[in-house]
């Protein structure tokens, strides 16, 4: 076994679950992102207000 393989074997981490930073939009889409800044919009619905709660829905004015 070479020195590089021995170092790689020592640095292996156990297999299992890991926490990943993620986001959830009000449309229901969830995604993981790499970065330190807040994503600008939801990749699915393109909403710029993806991280703000939606207000109450207006009553149906059809009647």
TrEMBL record:
It comes from the Bacteria. This is Uncharacterized protein.
